[in-house]
Amino acid sequence: MAWLNSLYSKMTVKIGQHEHHNNGSFCSEGAISQKRISSDTAKFHWVFWLSLILLMIIFGASLASGRYGISYGDTFRIVFSKILPIERTWNDIQEAVVIVYRLPRTVAAIIIGGVLALSGAAYQSIFKNPMVSPDLLGVSSGACVGAATAILMNASSVGIQLGAFAGGLIAVTITVMIPRLIRNESTTVLVLSGIVIGSLMSSIMSIIKFIADTDTQLAEITYWMMGSFARITFDNMLPVLPTIILPVIIILFMRYRLNVLSLGDNEAKTLGINLRTIRGIFILCSTLITASCVCLSGTIGWVGLVIPHTARMVIGSDNKKMLPIALIFGGIFMLVIDILCRTL
Q: How many Å apart are CA 72 and CA 96, to the nearest integer?
């Protein structure tokens, strides 16, 4: 019995040492993980606030940039004179240039660039494809057809906006209905449906341009398709803002679910995610955003494709952090491009 007690004592000591070693490993791994999370959060806060400050600086530069030279001091005094009692040191022409022309254009560039980047990031996560952009399901092509049809009917600017918005929604509705009709609602079939509808809308667009009046209508259609912020005013921007702001809020509020969707369909179902409902919500929100932007400014490409990649390289692939950064980066990018277009 003495040797048995001795063996038991040695085994107890070894087990205790082994458990102590494992506990130390677990503690060190937990500490490393906690430090990594804290580091990522700190990085997100730094990037977020620095990007926001940069956006504000470029916003001021945009108001002071253009063919008609206005100093930065007069520009800021003109803007703040609407809310503060400031001594007038500028003339009526300078005030009209800043308030009537540059301010709506600058605000529109920030909003449209930011939300297109956000929409593109959401699409890339939904379809698990880094080459996806907001016009994947045919919304841009459909909006172009709707706007061109309104121009053929000699509609007003409001009618053209409504036509573009309706055309985008109709195109995406047809795209979404095709997988249901063939009873295969996989993302691959949805993407193929979007390609088919986009090609169909492009063909219809070619027919419209062929029958359009070459002196007036064709030029207006071509100019609209090129995309521009020159015609945007607060009067035609305010009615569209609800269909932009509400979907943006929904996407940002539900952005953590995009991380689950990115894992794959089987993993998402295992975690209790209703794929059809969640995917439908994100597609609807992204479609409303894209259709609203296109009806305001015409077709603007690459923002929804390139900017999400830039944000992902800077902050990582976590959608909870990446989507807000993509929103700000998109506004900065579009504002810089607009300044270059006005000054070069």
A: 15
Element of type H or E holding 305: helix 303-315
Residue 148 lies in a domain: yes
Cα distance between residue 291 and residue 286, in whole Å: 9
218 SS3 class: helix
Q: ∠ CA 215-218-219 to the nearest 5 degrees?
A: 75
Which residue has tokens 């900065």?
332
Number of structural domains (the chain) is 1
pLDDT tens track for 250-279? 999 988 888 887 777 777 777 777 777 888
Torsion of CA 318, 130, 292, 58, to 10 degrees: 70
Q: Which domain holds residue 276?
A: 115-331
Tokens 């995406």 correspond to: 172
pLDDT of 64-78, one tens digit each? 888 887 888 888 888
Query: Which ranges constitute the DSSP H helices of 65-156?
Result: 72-80, 92-96, 103-127, 139-152
- 276 domain-assigned: yes
The answer to whether residues 299 and 115 touch, using CB atoms and an 8 Å cutoff, is: no
Which of 139, 129, 134, 132 lies closest to 261, judged by CA? 129
Q: Give tens-digit pLDDT for 221-256.
A: 888 888 888 888 888 889 899 999 999 999 999 888
Q: Is residue 336 part of a domain?
A: no
Which CATH number fits the domain that encloses residue 196? 1.10.3470.10
Residue 69: inside a domain, yes or no?
Answer: no
Query: Looking at residue 13, what is its pLDDT?
Result: 42
Residue with tokens 């677990």: 26
Residue with tokens 């809310």: 83
